[in-house]
Design goal:
The protein has one domain: Alpha-Beta Plaits, CATH 3.30.70.560. Helices cover 27% and strands 30% of the residues. A hairpin with a 3-residue loop joins strand 8 and strand 9.
Length: 160
């Protein structure tokens, strides 16, 4: 089994419910077990600011799926929730990103692992460090060190 970390985010409809349901959907993937999921966090949008705040989380999976098969499964879950890719950083019903897959680096059309901007985003790093405090981002170093560099980004943990 491989260890994968998935970032979840939503800011349309009922984002908290969508993120919780998406975590349950991850647990139902074939050849995959949900190991843990972070708390939910609220964060301001990045890039296109004229949209609602996001609800974010990170889930840790144990999976026998390849990175490519896991990505295909994530895209299928997004599609079930009506994800439309209208423009970069647009509002989303659901966004699922493959952050890490073991300590592997993958770079191919449509798939980059580790996620190329994860080290710059508190809304990814804070929930990641919550569930995996010693997590290392391949080629970058400890996720906790990168989180310290994102101190100017506003993110709030939501009550359970």
């Amino acid at each position: 089994m491989h260890t994968a970390f998935i970032a979840l985010g939503s800011n349309l409809g009922d984002p908290e419910t969508k993120v919780r349901e998406a975590i349950a959907a991850l647990a139902g993937l074939p050849q995959t077990r949900l190991e843990t999921a972070s708390s939910l966090y609220r964060s301001a949008p990045v890039g296109h600011a004229d949209q609602p705040d996001f609800v974010n989380a990170v889930a840790q999976l144990a999976t026998a799926l390849t990175p490519q098969a896991l990505l295909a499964a994530l895209l299928a879950i997004e599609a079930r929730y009506g994800r439309v890719r209208s423009f970069a950083n647009a509002p989303r019903t659901l966004d699922l990103d493959l952050l890490l897959y073991d300590a592997q680096s993958v770079s191919e059309s449509g798939l980059a692992v580790p996620h190329p901007r994860m080290h710059q985003r508190a809304f990814v790093l804070m929930p990641l460090v919550e569930i995996a405090p010693d997590c290392i981002i391949p080629g970058r170093g400890p996720a906790a060190d990168w989180l310290k560099r994102c101190g100017d980004q506003n993110i709030d943990r939501l009550a359970p």
